[in-house]
Amino acid sequence: MLRKRLNKHNLCYKLEKVLPLVKKSIPELSGLPLSSIIVATAFASSKTLASAFHTPGCPFYSRQLPITELMSDATLQDKICVSCLKKEVHFLSSEAFCDDMEMRCIAESSEVDQVPRQLLSKIVNDYGSFSSFVEDLVFFSCNQASPGRTWGVFDGKKISIMSLPLNVVPLIYGLWPLALINMSERYLCDEILALSTQAELTAHTTLQSTQKPFWSRAARNPFSIISAPQHYLSPLSAVSIEDGDERLHKIRKQVAKKSVNFMRWSFVNNQLIEATNYFSSPERRTAHSEYRAREEREASLLALRNYKEHTDNIHDLSDTAGPVHSISLNASKRTDISHDMSSHNEGLGHNSRSAEVEGYYRSYCSSEVNQKATNESSNLSEEKKETNNQGQELSFTSSEYSDANATTKIDLPDPNVLQHADGSWEYQYRNGDQTFVLTDGTKVFKTEGVTTTVRTDGSTLFEYPNGSVILDRSDGIRITTYPDGTSKEEDINS
Q1: pLDDT bucket at 144, cuts 50 / 70 / 90
Q2: Of 130, 251, 308, 413, which one's alpha carbon is 20 to 30 angstroms from that of 482?
Q3: What's the rounded Cα separation, in Å, for the pair 21 and 92?
């Protein structure tokens, strides 16, 4: 018990020594109770990347120095990163919480504490009987994967049992702790040492009782040691000799049963009452709904930011792509590709990328045809006339401007590129389509059926000749305005 109090005193001293630094670096933790500090420092915040990485030159991280030894140097205090500080505060707070919980839950004397009626009815409702609950508690304590603590917790509906390693507290999982059984190495080693000491004293007493008088011949006979007990246990051989695993299991079971026998069930009942009131309180429901709304809002803003960055990258790529470098075609394939590109004129207003690629292709074809016509005109006027006639006979089939079986003979697309005084660009096509690139990055695509405006904020506006307008905002909301003035708002992501 003296060791417990000494450890608890040192732990509280370290925690009190670190708290001034916490108030300076993490002011939101100042004034919070121990349980709130544990929950607040349990996991690194995913909002900022700075909290997940260590600050360069952090003395606690680079040199592995105890954070309590850095309190005397002000220059070192300023270099301690928030991640290391949160980790150390969480460790000290968890240790203090576990020790305080154990001191309140486990009695020092062997007085039998009666189980309160409310706790007994809840245990019988969840486990069938009180003895079944005790058996499960001992079973979980004896079969831990690693030394730690076994907790009885309440999740708002039923009482459960869970084993956690080291000083991990159920609070970080949203569970209310009711009771605990300490199965750490300290208790196991103390029990093993007690059994070893007892076995050594028993063996020594037996050896003295069977020892022959020194003056007798049997005392001088070296073979008389054979008559000594064969099951003498040294302090380190209590678990290493015959049936070591079975004996270790028995030691664990003995430690768990001792904790159950000394448990203060009145304290467990008080914890259950507080947990029930907490989970059923309207303040918790309000705080939970506010926290969830805040998290959903931050998640939506993050998704919107990522979407905007993605669309900006697409617009940057479309702006920097050159017409000559983006398309490289052979002269023999020019007629076929012009037929394929013209068949997509219907979707020009719905896809700004395809419209821009088509404009690049048309300007490329125009430059190629003009270059070819200039070269041929320098040779023969007759060949120039034949080339012009062949250029006029090139045709393509359009599903938007012609019937299914009709073929319209037109010249190759030749957009007229104009630059206005304000710095904006205009592309005029022979089929009547127009493309405007404004100085702020806004792109306007005008076709016969729809006028599409792609804005820099990620929103897209569709305007139809009948007066209806569709606005797709960057946050996934679509606003449709009908010719009669009525509008409808919907979420296209859901």
Answers
A1: confident
A2: 308
A3: 14
Instruction: Summarize pLDDT for 441-462 with one digit per residue, the tens.
Output: 889 999 988 999 998 888 899 9
DSSP-derived 3-state class of residue 359: helix
Name 435's bridge partners: 427, 445
Round to whole Å and give the CA distance between 337 and 342: 8
- CB within 8 A of 130, min separation 6: which ones? 115, 120, 123, 124
Q: What is the end-to-end Cα distance of the chain in Å, rounded?
A: 61
Least reliable range by pLDDT among 39-53, 273-287, 372-386? 372-386
Q: Is 348 left (phi over 0), alpha (psi -120 to 50) or beta?
A: alpha
Cβ count near 399 (within 10 Å)? 12
Which amino acid, one-letter code, is at 12? C
Give me the residue label for tokens 């710095």. 423
Residue 463 has pLDDT above 80, yes or no: yes
Mean predicted confidence (pLDDT) in 478-491:
88
The alpha carbon torsion through 298, 299, 304, 306 (nearest 10 deg) reads 110
Eight-class DSSP state of 317: H
Both tokens assigned to 247: 């004996």
Q: How many helical (H) and strand (E) elements, i.e. helices and strands, does the chain have?
A: 16, 14
* Sequence-ordered strand ranges (E) for 71-199: 148-154, 159-165, 176-183
Q: Measuring CA to CA, which residue among 492, 469, 472 is closest to residue 482? A: 469
Task: Report d(CA 94, CA 149) in Å as an integer.
Answer: 12
3-state helix, strand, coil in the chain (%, to 5): 55, 15, 30
Q: Which tokens go with 470?
A: 């569709």
Torsion of CA 194, 200, 202, 203, to 10 degrees: 160
Q: Is 467 left (phi over 0), alpha (psi -120 to 50) or beta?
A: left
Q: Exposure of 259 by Cβ count < 10 A (0-12 exposed, 13-18 middle, 19+ buried)?
A: buried
What's the rounded Cα separation, in Å, for the pair 102 and 461? 65
CA distances (Å), origin 135, targets 79, 139, 162, 223, 263 = 51, 6, 14, 49, 14
Amino acid at the residue 287? A
What residues does CATH 3.55.40.20 cover in the chain?
Answer: 117-188+247-280
Distance (Å, rounded) from C-alpha 412 to C-alpha 338? 8
Q: Which residue has the tokens 């002269």?
A: 331
**Do 265 and 115 meet the contact criterion of CB atoms below 8 Å apart?**
yes
The answer as to CATH 3.55.40.20 being correct for domain 117-188+247-280 is: yes
For residues 150 and 105, what is the distance between their CA atoms, to the nearest angstrom? 13
Can you tell me the distance from the alpha carbon of 68 to that of 84, in angstroms, rounded to the nearest whole number? Answer: 12
